[in-house]
Protein: Carboxypeptidase B
Organism: Nannospalax galili
Amino acid sequence: MLLLLALVSVVLAHPSGENFDGDQVFRVHVEHEDQINLIHELANAKELDFWKPDSATLIKPHSTVDFHVKAEDTAVVKDFLEQNEFLYEVLMSNMKNVLEAQFDSHTRASGHSYTKYNSWETIEAWTQQVASENPDLVSRSVIGTTFEGRNLYVLKVGKSKAKKPAVFMDCGFHAREWISPAFCQWFVREAVRTYGTESQMTELLNELDFYVLPVLNIDGYVYTWTKSRMWRKTRSTRAGNSCVGVDPNRNFNAGWCEAGASRSPCSDTYCGPAAESEKETKALADFIRNNLSSIKAYLTIHSYSQLILYPYSYDYKLPKNHEELDTLAKGAAKELATLYGTKYTYGPGATTIYPAAGGSDDWAYDQGVKYSFTFELRDTGYYGFLLPESQIKATCEETMLAVKYIVSYIREHLY
Ligand SMILES: [Zn+2]
């Protein structure tokens, strides 16, 4: 009940005019169970918005925890951390400044731009435009609708040819991870821009189709633009329940709701009343099931932490081809770093971060898609979800290298 009340107050306290003035983001070093319990205690007393890990229940010993604290609670939180002798840093001393700094690209022209964050309206118009301007390479289809009735688009990118293998890539699972949709748009742009001139991309588009889903959790994304920038989940509601939304990346039928997911509707990692309860995850899963004979790879783009993860996350078990996946992830991380030296970590989800059941990567893998990866893009917490627009270009450029590396390998190892 306390949590429920707390969440209701989040929603009420962050109307469209939310400004985060005085809000802070803390990074706390946690060594043992006692300290984890203390953080739980703090989270029960004060409303903490966990950035990393995704919720208080996922904190591991010997790790760091990032969370956002509202202005009026910062003094109490600081006192608590000091009295209990925690090692901590204040990552953001005033979130309002960082929030404003997101829009620092200096290209604030209205309309679509690949180097700024685009609203859903703008992205939707762009999906139509990029398809109509590149009819020989891009086609758009609607694979379902969201809870609030928005169209879920998939762009099929590739030179038409019979019986092509395909790669599925999605962005925008978690609403506040704005760099993710930016990457899907960038990917499509690079495909159409470099086809016919750049040999690797030309070959990839000749031999493979890419299904790109630019934003999965559109309702949530819209909500982060209009109401609450830090929203993560979908926006579905259910009779008799005042908390809104489900974590779409805990909603797949892969060890559903077993580990690292919450059964509490108010939690940010709520697994939902059933697997695929959300219209968005159901549409995605249906699309993959219907195209399983062609889909050879599944890539899902999140932020932040700079990670390349592969199955499993719902269990500590390793996938059959884990050595191959590990080599691929390692190669992709190395390739990514060649451009700006950005350091990525890689490995199976459960051991690299923490067990988390119901994720789309594990689900796709268990459907038979043997190359399945989750990307966690920039950064490692300095800006967190508020990565400035001026980093979109570099982030997307380096990520392209990793994606092309993985996909080129898959093209040579079709199954
Ligand atoms: Zn995410």
